[in-house]
Design brief:
The complex is a heterodimer.
Chain A: H1 5-10, H2 12-44, H3 49-64, H4 67-75, H5 82-86, H6 90-93, H7 96-121, H8 125-133, H9 138-153, H10 155-168, H11 180-191, H12 194-223
Chain B: H1 6-38, H2 43-57, H3 61-79, H4 93-118, H5 122-130, H6 135-165, H7 177-188, H8 191-220
Helix pairs in contact in B: 1-2, 1-4, 1-7, 2-4, 3-4, 4-6, 5-6, 6-8, 7-8
Classes of the chains: A mainly alpha, B mainly alpha.
Pfam families (chain B): BPD_transp_1
Membrane topology (chain B): Multi-pass membrane protein
GO molecular function (chain B): transmembrane transporter activity
Amino acid sequence: MIFDYNVIWASMPLYLSGLLETVKLLGISLFFGLLAAVPLGLMRVSKQAWVNFPAWLFTYVIRGTPMLVQLFLIYYGLAQFEVIRDSFMWPLLSSATFCACLAFAINTSAYTAEIIAGSLRATPNGEIEAAKAMGMSRSKMYRRILLPSAMRRALPQYSNEVIMMLQTTSLASIVTLIDITGAARTVNAQYYLPFEAYITAGAFYLCLTFILVRLFKLAERRWLGYMAPRKA
Amino acid sequence: MLKGYGAVILDGAWLTLQLALSSMALAIVLGLIGVSLRLSPVRWLAWMGDLYSTVIRGIPDLVLILLIFYGGQDLLNRVAPMLGYDDYIDLNPLAAGIGTLGFIFGAYLSETFRGAFMAIPKGQAEAGMAYGMSPFQVFFRVLVPQMIRLAIPGFTNNWLVLTKATALISVVGLQDMMFKAKQAADATREPFTFFLAVAAMYLVLTSVSLLALRQLEKRYSVGVRAAEL
């Protein structure tokens, strides 16, 4: 069995546009996911049950069900209701790109919220006491001390979440989008060369993963340098 | 409420459960092999173990599923004629699904096991050797029982991810509950109802697993004092 380089070379433009689509999906869903995750994470550390419970339920349900089901619920499911089909949101909700981004953002927001909550709970007591001793109000303490410190400490775990998210974006190919996986499926359907098509896609994902790992290493050095083990 | 599709979906749920359990069994075996490779003093064996876990964990499950399912079928039909078997072979989706998920999650588990093995004090293995146990006996009698306790939190996580990943096998035609729900949704034009029902089933499955594995962890931690803050 010989690896057919020619076909892969000829399909490179398709793969590259797929790469762009993957990066776009990842970027958009991570941005909005993080935006939603911060308030959700704050709710999760609240002592008031009526604040904590809705956030807990949300993250529990999202983390307990497969991404594919969530994507299908949004992409296929919402069309079941006439109210939604007649609403002004319909042009958006009938677009695969929008549905994929929405589903991914919801999914990552749940996981990220738990990461942020865990990091907030692990705040050293002294930092909180110092903030109180300085006479900071609760909101000022969260803005200036708790959140910046917790977000930094969440970086290593968040890098895992980002890499999981990169892999999750491959599901977009199931709802007709042509991301890297979609490109590979197109190539396989056209030439019937499964090995060539999917191994190329795998190589693209591996490269992206390594780049992300590298970027997070740099980010950790920048923002988490004070926690690195001391060099001899 | 489910328009008579309830039984069909339950059938699919049974298949989902079979798929999840069998692939986890395979993943445990592959994970143990993977971790033995990675912790081996022989350089190229350790390197192979690292390669397995890094490459598999860096590629999306869906891509691996498509690669192994379509690629495996292709390979099988190219190799079979050479062995004098001329009929076209159709890969059984359940067997292919178990193989694929087992292979993927073996890599994840080898990482979990590695962390757990490294957390066992060195003296334990040395004591076993001092008693004249063979390396094989040290591994299965001394290290593995202690490793299980340390690996349970990571294992729980992997099991939950695996359970959810089974939904992806429906993409290559396994008639699990996701597949059945899609069929029912197409037939009745009520996708939301059916996908919501399936989401609830997955939630039940993950919740039950979470509770059961927490009990297991308690059982394995009997005799270990928790650090009190």
